[in-house]
Amino acid sequence: MTSIGQLRSQVASKERSAVEVARQYLERAERLDTEVHAFLRLTPERALAAAEAVDAKIARGEDAGLLAGVPIAVKDNLCMVGIPTTCASKILENYRPPYESTATRRLEERGALIIGKTNLDEFAMGSSTENSAFGPTRNPWDLSRVPGGSSGGSAAAVAACEAVASLGSDTGGSIRQPASFCGVVGLKPTYGLVSRYGLVAFASSLDQIGPFTRSVEDAALVLQAIAGHDPLDSTSLAVNVPDYRQALVSDLKGVKVGFIKEFFAEGLDPDVADAVFEAIEVMRDLGAQIQEVSCPRFARGLSTYYIIATSEASANLARYDGVKYGLRDREADALVPMYGRTREAGFGSEVKRRIMLGTYALSAGYYDAYYLKAQKVRTLIKQDYLDAFAKVDVLVGPTAPTTAFAFGDKVSDPLSMYLSDIYTIPLNLAGVAGASIPCGFDARGLPIGFQIMANALEEGKLLRAAYAYEQATEWHKRAPALAAEALTR
Ligand code: GLN
What we know:
This protein is of the alpha/beta class. The protein is 39% helix and 12% strand.
């Protein structure tokens, strides 16, 4: 499978045109997606128009950009002008945004070819894509298993080599957990590093956009393209974005790595624990100083998250009332019943569950006991991470307690589904950066993810640790059998 750097130079040297690359990936995606269902829709017109623009620039001798000729898939909760953006919900069926997200605009300004919109759990609520109103995505390593979620389509598209990179969003783990399940790199940047203008909001104090790729270097390049201040998003940080490529060095001399001891407890699959401990040993061999650190309040993350995220979701999803967007019930004879009937028909059961939980947590009389208390616990969890980052450069641990589970395994038990994000959620509460990179396979041949975390705006440290580890190992070079042919082209 070609890397971003190789593709860019092939296109720049006219070895192949961006239009040829776009056609090749659109054809592959169409063919493989009959099995994988990573995409809700392909966007050939957009991809080919972008490719023609890249080829025209190259013909004029101009620089076509950091991502020139790179086919990229985008989670279907990012708005693109005129292209249906559904969030995998019936309530947004046929909604065509009149505006473009900053992340997709920046991708295309740098020469990327956006080939389609990927599947997700409805409104990014879930860990398996089974909550999509349009059917689940299948894990390319084992089609009877979930790809993780909520950005399962974006992870599967990259794992199956249907796209070179993709964008997802991570509120509680939705980039890192599916990256782990699908054996690819997934990076959740610091809260505020990537503009969320045009990202359909789930939980606004937690949501962040980030890349999926097959290598750490490619993740650095996509992050480079999308990061940076945006006046259209008031939560976007006014900081200078460093050149992340400079962080990509192959050793870890002098780097302090802490493993979070509370992550290695009951509920962690032994194959996952073994692979993660081996990964830590690889880091030690590369020169890292390893130490144990404690984040004592990490276990409170899940309950805190499910109060804060649902509260924010209940407010953010109030706008889908049948008036302004998508679906509208045509039977009701008055406004209020129309609201109710539209929401009843338009939202799936997990979204309804979250709206009810959040509305309850915010209601008069319960606000102090739930929402306010959760905010206080959030501050304490954040403090645990800040204390840890005062001692070490990066933290490491498993991304998820298990590898990919089978369809149907957890749908009827929300709590066990929620537990698959136990190691990813605290990081969103703290607002810091985290990534999952491949670190092995379990006895069934399913990928295992290694989570590397860094303090706010220290993506450089995170990328360095991830890159050095990756260069010393071979895990990222494997691809699922159904995509094997792509590795040679
Ligand atoms: N799986 C978690 C949830 O269901 C996280 C989702 C996300 O990060 N968007 O809320």
